[in-house]
Amino acid sequence: MKRQQPFLIRLTKFLVGFKLTPIGRVAVLGIFLSAIGAVTVEIPIYQIFCGLVAFFGLIELTGILLRPKVDVKVWLPDRVTAGESVTGYLTITNLGWLPACDIMCVMFGLPGGLRHVDADRSIQWIGVGETDTLPFTIEAKSRGEYLLPEIRVHSTFPFNLMRFGKAKAPQLELLVVPAFEPIGRYSLPFSRKFQVGGVTVDSQIGQSTEFVGNREYVPGEPARKLDFKAWARVGHPVVREFQDEVTSDVALILDVFRPTEWRRFGMASKQLETAVSLTAAIAHSLDQHQSSVEVFGCGPDLYLFQPSAQGSHFESILQILAVTQRNRYDSFSQLTEAMTEPLESTAVAICIFLTWNPEREHFLRMMYESGIGVRCYLVVDARDEIMVPDDLEVAVIDPKDPSALEGIE
């Protein structure tokens, strides 16, 4: 059971966080400063103290008597791109017996990646029984999946020093997807399995598979793949291999592991954001030019998308990238094990790494040897001394270079 905070702490949070407006906090500070003169009536400053206290008492009484009674409905788009702003609307109906004046909204406890940019916007007057709309704008500074706090609708009448009202709008969810620069048409690397226009034809005639040969049986494979005639001919278990007749699947792999270096934590964040933006840009280009991403690896997780007539999974990839975080533990071996079977039907693999080691080099070579077209991007600091073999197609991207992604094609 969550322990309840002491009453004084809760009261202070209510007064400072909600009850007092920014101008009201300054006025209360003036009351405390003028209280110094209240120790004696010989100093005229005590009159200022008494006047401010009486003034706030009058505001509190007026605000309680004129406190608005309203009904609130809210609408807000459920998605926005990082770095952009999204505007929602509050539909406010006055249910009280008196007009509602100086109606505003506030969102306390807004997550750090979001900012309410027009908290000072207000509706001056809502007549009895009338309805008006109050827009509010949220700036999304960083990607993620956010649960917004309740939007509290209140009145600052009179004098805009204190807030009055209990109306609330329900909590909303907001998905902030990564920002990226479109890269035009992305040229896929050469692959022995690649067939141009496969997805376009596939969306018209449906899926079919083609027998391409036999290979030795690997323990654990389904028995339906066994070729008994070939087994009898060669004397050991063999299985049939099939591939899509017209479709060439693309695997997009984002490895989010990077060894922790406390002195360069900011660089790790830049690396991740650059890698996420690059992944989104490549997925967008493939989606725009009729290439199907059927396998998506992100950190330790593997996503296998079902083929569809539309052939587009870009929106799903964006949703995954929106909540992707850096992996503090190297789980690359789990990903490679999970990808063993999906890679059999993959024609092209595009990899984005944050670090380089023999395990990742072996993974690339394994795909090369199996006939998969491979392209790898290594997002690392230019100061890092990383030796990449010349026979592997690996492009090094410096996250500090603003133009690093301009040459991607």
What does this structure look like?
The chain is α/β, with parallel strands linked by helices and 409 residues long. The protein folds into 3 domains: 7-65, no CATH class; 70-177, Sandwich (Immunoglobulin-like), CATH 2.60.40; 198-208 and 245-397, Rossmann fold. 28% of the residues lie in helices and 28% in strands. β14 (249-254), α6 (265-288) and β15 form a beta-alpha-beta unit. The chain is elongated. Keywords: Membrane, Transmembrane, Transmembrane helix.
In short:
With 409 residues, this protein is of the alpha/beta class. The protein is 28% helix and 28% strand.
**Total of domains:** 3
Gross geometry: elongated
Top-tier CATH class of the largest domain:
Alpha Beta
The sequence of SSEs as H and E is HHHEEEEEEEEEEEHEHEEHEEHHEHEE
Low-confidence region ranges? 196-207
Termini separation: 54 Å
What's the total count of β strands?
19
Structural class: alpha/beta
Mean pLDDT: 82
Report strand order across the widest sheet. Answer: 16-15-14-17-18-19
**Computed Rg:** 31 Å
Give the helix level as a range of percent.
Answer: 25-40%
Q: Main beta sheet, described?
A: 6 strands, mixed
The CATH architecture name of the largest domain reads 3-Layer(aba) Sandwich
Beta content? 25-35%
The tally of helices reads 9
Annotated CATH topology of the largest domain = Rossmann fold
Transmembrane segments: 20-39, 45-66
Pfam families: DUF58
Domain DUF58: 215-401
InterPro entries: DUF58
